[in-house]
């Protein structure tokens, strides 16, 4: 993440234009690392995000809103006490270090003007936000450190000092003699030499300097080559930091954000990119999409875990019922014992033994057999006991068989959701799957207000829509609710329905418009059916297809479950991706 000193320098200029001479209206702390300042200036309120998140420290202006906690954390309350109503009078950077200092003018209880500073250190896992007074005494920090935890304690009342790691040279001020000495004292790559010795320089910026200097050697000794790197560094810094010539650029890969920078980087020339009119907009979109992707991954993992846990429970329940069926095999033996005791009753005498010997009328040679007895019961009661055991096991067997049938349906349903989950690309897809899990009782349903319900309805995704090479519309369900909608409500009786044979996956519909469907369209639809199934990237995947009129949904069946007949099967190799398919956005 290249939020380096160069980026911060360019951003500082935008923040000065947007915020200086503004008044602090509101302050929130949506999480343990982030502070939001609402600054009013020239009829507009700007929201400044300052985040000391260890993995993604950042600062920028945004119009996006977050839910704030009902009870403000202590640091937020201290900021409100000291900065609400204050005038923001200056924003400063420590050289090209990733340290930004925001100056405020406030009024004391006696009406005197006081100066206070909000200092933001972007130091990776050591990032922090400090509130200090005019003498740089710490009022508080978002992350405190005691004397035992750090050689640089961060506590109220302690004098603020710069981080001890600030030993690198300012690249704007460094001379060529100093610069060349970096290379003489190191055998590292040119990129690492720059980042090790110069402040505010990220790996991306260092790579850009080397690329623009057209240096491709890994080890440098030639003075002219080092001079080319030096000149490239100075020229880039002059254009960005001094002249403010920037072109904020966002880089993506397969729809996900990869990086951003203040200029268009040559090292990212192969990535899709988007330019912005100002740096704040670029940073805002980067972190918004980054957060969206993180939320997407976390939710998908959460739903995956729920599905796996329920499949595991059902599998255990399945095994228990199989065991009951195995035990029920003894049922006929118990019935036989009861029959033989009663059949021999006329010639048997009550006994104190724990068995009785009877004639086995079921054997061809009428041999005798011993039947175990319970001593506290007479012969007739023992016979009744065996009949009860027989009836109990037979009922348990019947119940177990019914249970197994239901368990198989549930596992099939969950596996279908798992297949859909693997192919989900948007948060709306996950919300639909989550809704299915809620409806089927796998997730406890939370009581929602009308606003939440409407928001959820607006977030529902639509089925995938493709156009075949022959011009036919092909629709693919993203979840089981969409599968039901496509097959039962959307498709007409003469449309073609496709699904992987005995493999969980999406329902696929070809809109025929009462026309004959060419083989090419049928194959394309089958490829989509295999791709959006558990058979992803497999070879020789069987895909069944039939007219929609031959597809039925049994009453009270799980979402996405159907039965069908009069079908044919086509064998396809599931594609690695569907980039070549004509998808309708």
UniProtKB/TrEMBL annotation:
Residues 462-556 form the NFACT RNA-binding domain. One of its GO terms (molecular function) is rRNA binding. The keyword Repeat does not apply. One of its GO terms (biological process) is rescue of stalled ribosome. Residues 390-440 form a coiled coil. Keywords: Coiled coil, Protein biosynthesis, RNA-binding, rRNA-binding, tRNA-binding. One of its GO terms (cellular component) is RQC complex. The keyword Coiled coil applies. Belongs to the NEMF family. Associates with stalled 50S ribosomal subunits. Binds to RqcP. Key component of the ribosome quality control system (RQC), a ribosome-associated complex that mediates the extraction of incompletely synthesized nascent chains from stalled ribosomes and their subsequent degradation. RqcH recruits Ala-charged tRNA, and with RqcP directs the elongation of stalled nascent chains on 50S ribosomal subunits, leading to non-templated C-terminal alanine extensions (Ala tail). The Ala tail promotes nascent chain degradation. May add between 1 and at least 8 Ala residues. Binds to stalled 50S ribosomal subunits. This is Rqc2 homolog RqcH. It comes from Caldicellulosiruptor bescii (strain ATCC BAA-1888 / DSM 6725 / KCTC 15123 / Z-1320). The lineage of its organism: Bacteria, Bacillati, Bacillota, Bacillota incertae sedis, Caldicellulosiruptorales.
């Amino acid at each position: 993440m290249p939020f380096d000193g160069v980026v911060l320098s360019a951003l500082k200029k935008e923040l000065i234009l947007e915020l200086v001479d503004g008044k602090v209206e509101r302050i929130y702390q949506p999480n343990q690392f982030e502070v939001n300042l609402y600054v009013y200036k020239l009829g507009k309120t700007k929201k400044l995000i300052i985040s000391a998140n260890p993995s993604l420290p950042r600062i920028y202006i945004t119009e996006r809103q977050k839910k704030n906690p009902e009870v403000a954390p202590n640091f937020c309350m201290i900021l409100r006490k000291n900065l609400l109503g204050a005038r923001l009078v200056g924003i400063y950077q420590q050289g090209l270090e990733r340290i930004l200092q925001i100056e405020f003018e406030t009024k004391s209880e006696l009406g005197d003007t006081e100066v206070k500073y909000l200092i933001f250190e972007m130091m990776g896992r050591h990032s922090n936000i400090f509130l200090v007074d005019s003498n740089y005494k710490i009022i508080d920090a978002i992350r405190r450190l005691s004397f035992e935890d750090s050689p640089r304690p961060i506590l109220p009342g302690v004098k603020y000092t710069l981080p001890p790691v600030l030993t690198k040279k300012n690249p704007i001020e460094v001379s060529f003699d100093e610069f060349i000495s970096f290379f003489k004292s190191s055998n590292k790559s040119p990129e690492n030499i720059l980042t090790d010795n110069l402040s505010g320089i990220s790996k991306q910026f260092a790579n850009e300097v080397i690329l623009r200097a057209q240096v491709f050697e890994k080890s440098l000794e030639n003075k002219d080559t080092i001079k080319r790197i030096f000149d490239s560094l100075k020229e880039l810094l002059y254009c960005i930091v001094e002249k403010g010539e920037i072109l904020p650029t966002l880089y993506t890969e397969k729809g996900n954000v990869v990086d951003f920078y203040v200029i268009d980087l040559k090292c990212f020339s192969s990535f899709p990119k988007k330019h912005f009119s100002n740096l704040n907009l670029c940073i805002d979109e980067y972190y918004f999409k980054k957060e969206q992707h993180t939320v997407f991954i976390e939710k998908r993992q959460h739903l995956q875990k729920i599905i796996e846990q329920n499949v595991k429970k059902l599998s255990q329940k399945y095994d228990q019922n199989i065991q009951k069926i195995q035990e029920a095999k003894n049922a006929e033996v118990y019935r036989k014992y009861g029959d033989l005791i009663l059949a021999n009753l006329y010639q048997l005498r009550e006994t104190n033994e724990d068995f009785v010997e009877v004639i086995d009328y079921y054997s061809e040679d009428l041999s005798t057999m011993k039947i175990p007895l319970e001593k506290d019961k007479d012969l007739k009661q023992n016979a009744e006991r065996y009949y009860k055991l027989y009836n109990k096991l037979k009922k348990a067997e019947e119940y177990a068989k019914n249970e197994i049938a239901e368990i198989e349906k549930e596992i099939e349903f969950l596996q279908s959701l798992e297949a859909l989950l693997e192919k989900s690309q948007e948060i709306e897809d996950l919300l639909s799957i989550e809704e299915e899990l809620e409806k089927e009782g796998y997730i406890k349903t939370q009581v929602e207000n009308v606003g939440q319900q409407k928001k959820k309805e607006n977030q529902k995704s639509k089925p995938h829509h493709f156009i075949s090479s022959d011009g036919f519309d092909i629709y693919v369900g993203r979840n089981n609710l969409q599968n039901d909608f496509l097959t039962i409500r959307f498709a007409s009786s003469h449309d073609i329905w496709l699904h992987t044979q005995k493999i969980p996956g999406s329902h696929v519909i070809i809109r025929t418009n009462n026309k004959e469907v060419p083989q090419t369209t049928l194959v394309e639809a089958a490829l989509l059916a295999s791709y959006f199934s558990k058979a992803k990237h497999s070879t020789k995947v069987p895909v069944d297809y039939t007219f929609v009129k031959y597809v039925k949904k049994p009453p009270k069946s799980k979402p996405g479950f159907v039965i069908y007949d009069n079908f044919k099967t086509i064998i396809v190799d599931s594609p690695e991706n569907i980039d070549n398919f004509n998808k309708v956005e």
